[in-house]
Amino acid sequence: MTLPIDQPIDLFSLALAFHPDGAVDAAERRMTADSGAWQVATFHVETDADVHADHWEVHPAAEEAVCCLAGGIRVCFRPEEPGGAEEVVALPAGHAVIVPRGRWHRLELDGPSDIMSITLRRGSRLEKRT
């Protein structure tokens, strides 16, 4: 959706989609998208349920930048070997981590937080954590 230049975009309601041809537009936030656009999505989250902490997530088409804008979050990486331990990266406000392409991960909150995700969502999936 193209908005007039004098209309601010509420980043907590819409995502920004950066298309391969250089176009940028505001769009509904989606877990998966096949448009080829990179999505910048910002969320205010209150509980672990808001970040589907009980699910693993993967983005096979690209790396993902997970940014903590306010509050504090933990990015948990699924063990790459059976029986291994999760790797956890703590992100205080103003910090980010790059999630490698194809690496299963999930988020947990330290408390109410504002987070931003930047990735190419093509092929993204969720899997229930067991």
Outline the structure in words.
By secondary structure, the protein is mainly beta. It has a single domain, classed as Jelly Rolls, CATH 2.60.120.10. Helix content is 0%, strand content 47%. The protein is built from no helices and eleven strands. The chain has strands at 15-18, 24-27, 38-45, 55-58, 64-70, 72-77, 87-92, 95-99, 105-109, 113-120, 125-128. The strands form three sheets. The chain has a six-stranded antiparallel β-sheet, with no helix packed on it. The protein has a three-stranded antiparallel β-sheet with strand order 7-6-9, with no helix packed on it. Strand 1 (15-18) and strand 2 form a beta hairpin. It is globular, with a radius of gyration of 15 Å. The termini are far apart.
Question: Can you give me a brief rundown of this structure?
Answer:
This protein has 130 residues and is an all-beta fold.
| Strand order in space, largest sheet | 2-1-3-10-5-8
Question: pLDDT under 50 segments (min length 5)?
Answer: none
- Output mean pLDDT: 92
User: What amount of the residues lies in strands?
Assistant: over 45%
Rg is 15 Å
